[in-house]
Each structure stands twice: as structure tokens, then as C-alpha cells.
From TrEMBL:
One Pfam family recorded for the sequence: DXP_reductoisom
EC number assigned by the record: 1.1.1.267
Function: Catalyzes the NADPH-dependent rearrangement and reduction of 1-deoxy-D-xylulose-5-phosphate (DXP) to 2-C-methyl-D-erythritol 4-phosphate (MEP).
Keyword Magnesium in record: yes
Name of the protein this chain belongs to: 1-deoxy-D-xylulose 5-phosphate reductoisomerase
Top EC group: oxidoreductase
Taxonomic source organism: cyanobacterium endosymbiont of Braarudosphaera bigelowii
Amino acid sequence: MKKISILGSTGSIGTQTLDIVYQYPEQFKVMGLTTHSNIELLFAQIKQFHPEIVAVANKEKVENLKNMISTLDNSPIIVAGDQGVIEVACYGDTESIVTGIVGCAGLLPTIEAIKAGKDIALANKETLIAGGPVVLPLIEKYGVKLLPADSEHSAIFQCLQGIDNKDLKRVILTASGGAFRDLPTEKLKFVTVEDALKHPNWSMGKKITIDSATLMNKGLEVIEAHFLFEVDYSNIDIVIHPQSIIHSLIELIDTSVLAQLGWPDMRLPLLYALSWPKRIHTDWKQLDLAKMSNLTFQKPDYDKYPCIKLAYAAGKAGGAMPAVLNAANEQAVKSFLNKEITFLAIPYIIEKTCELFVSNNSSQPTLDDILEADQWARGTALMLVKK
Ligand code: NAD
Ligand code: MG
């Protein structure tokens, strides 16, 4: 039985991970859970999964949770604030941490979990994008595993099993195309938050759904792939695949191309990130190619989706630039969700913030440099929102 904890257990990734535990209780034991503010759902999860420790990041909510829990016979340790989330990430003999927190808020807990010797099932891509230059050396130093749970990176990782790294030539990330795939570019001016939240294939948290509509999600995944698989940016490609059945592909030096296929269901990549190197038998719906409609592919439209180019440029610039891109994007998406800016202002704000950072970038940033760049970029993006 593997002992796991889930950071952000009340979100889309968190609840889908708990669904796996519910279905395969003989495989996993939940040690710790965390939420930002959703104590009602956390309370229900405590009753169902009996964790040893839970954290509420929002300190104002923790007393309410304590009151709710006082009615239980067996109550977990309750901790609060960002420090509380870190305590859960480092707790006891937990083996694997699923990082389901959204945004750069996941960075410090992930770093502390690595230092405590925990394997990381990485859903929280923002952590690696911003913190790659410090996270990767720590993975080496502490000898832990960084296992991708993002569906594309899981697909690449699955294809890479048994492949010598020197034989990998190119990775090809598939993208659904997001909410506005079939909308003409000139109509993007008029789209609303509600329109952008309608993802064609996946049901996810709001932030990543907006990232899918701008295709920044794919841009962030390019940087994620660079860090995870040590592939040069010139060898990372994107192809639009509206059906989301092929989750990504790799090309080898002899031109052979390998792909991983499955329904658009995050539980499979999450399960593999927890079971690797083993496979666990499931009774999930089988893929039936004969019953499926066509699988189609097209080139991404880089003019319609400037976020893709911005992400490649930030990735190539390296240093703390990906952290700046990520933080500006987090702020711009937040402002868009609050209806303070239009959809097309998102790439504009990110581009301007990155431009203003160029001369401050350093090629070997420390954790402090990254945290400082992150804060600076949030402030700069917010200033641009207000302009
Ligand atoms: P979500 O918004 O549904 O859930 C986020 C979780 O993090 C919640 O439990 C919330 O309480 C917690 N949280 C939010 N802000 C926090 C903070 N400041 N401190 C501590 N906890 C905080 O998000 P999601 O869709 O589950 O996405 C989580 C991460 O996984 C993101 O990085 C996303 O890019 C990545 N991801 C998600 C999916 C998906 O299908 N949802 C797929 C691939 C990758
Ligand atoms: Mg993905």
C-alpha cells in the first residue's frame, strides 16, 4: 500500500486523485490533504479517507474546520496557513505527494517535500515552470522521483519507458485547441469569461481552463516538457488534435514515432504517476478505435494565439523569465476572471511584463531570485491591468 498526500485535494486534480483511492483502496493510503478555503469538502474528505494530517491555507477558515471536526471520534492533526501546507507536504513516512495546488503557490511546498525525501506526482506545472532551475537540482540531490501527472507529459513519459534518452529526437505535444478553436480570430475581441470557461473535452479548474482557451496552457507545457525531458526547445512541437485521444507523441532518431492513447480522463496519468514503474489493473472504459470518429490534426495558429510564442521565447530566455511569464499569466488570468480586462489583454500584459524584465534576468537564478521575479511580475502585471 502506497502512502500518499494530496496538496489541493478539493480541486479538480485533488478530487480525481481521491476517486482513484476510493476505487482502489487496497493500493493507496491517504496520509494528508490540503485546501485553500473549501473546508466543507475537506471535512467530507476527512470523514471518507481518514487522513492523519490536514491543512487549510486560508487561516481564517481553520477555526470553522476545527468546530466541524470536534464531532468526529478520530480527528486528524489540523494545521493552517502556507506553513501548514508545507507540514502536510513533509509529513511522516508519506511516500508520494500529488501536487494539485494551482499556480506558483505550489512551489515552496513542493521544494520542502523533495527535501523531506518524497516523490512528486506533478500536476502543478507552474511549480516546475517557475522553479525548474532550483527544483531539478534538488530532485537529483535528494534522489527522489519527479513523475509527471499532466496528461501530455505522462504520455511522453509512458512512451519513453525502455527508450535510451540519447535516442529521443523530438517531442510532440497534442492540444485540444481550447474553447475558441473554431472561432474566427476577429471574434476573440468579444468573448466573455463564461465563453472561455467552456472547454470542449476536459473538466478542470478555472485557471487552467482559461489557459487552455489562450493556449498558454500548451506554452507552459512546452517549458514543462523542456525541464522534465531535457529536450531543446527547437525539438518540442505542438499539434492541434481536437479529439484529445492521442495525449502526446515522441519521435526517435530513426524517425519512429510513438504515441499514447486514451480517453480524455486525468485519472489515468494520475494513476501512472502514483503506480510507476508498475501498472495497476483498472476496469475503466476501454478505448475502442473502431467506434471513434476521425482523429484529426492541424497546425496551431500562432497569430491567433500569441501566448504560444511568448512561452517559447520565455523558455529560451531561461533563468527567471519562465517564472515572470508564469506570474504575469496568473495575474492576467485572475484579472480576466474578475472581468477587469478583456481576453485579448491577457497576452498583451504577459508580453509587456516579460519585455520589462529582460535586463534583470540572470541565467542561474536562486530560489530567492525566482520568488522575487515572481512577485515583481505579479505587481507589474497588476499595474498594467489598472492602466
Ligand atoms: P483547481 O482550481 O480545481 O484546484 C486547486 C486546488 O488548490 C484547490 O484544492 C484549492 O483549494 C487549492 N489552492 C488554490 N490556491 C491555493 C493557495 N494559494 N494555497 C494553497 N492551496 C491553494 O485546479 P486544478 O484544475 O485541479 O489544477 C491544479 C493544478 O494541476 C494546476 O497547476 C493545473 O495546471 C494542473 N493540471 C490540472 C489538470 C486538470 O485536469 N484539472 C490537468 C493537468 C494539469
Ligand atoms: Mg496538459
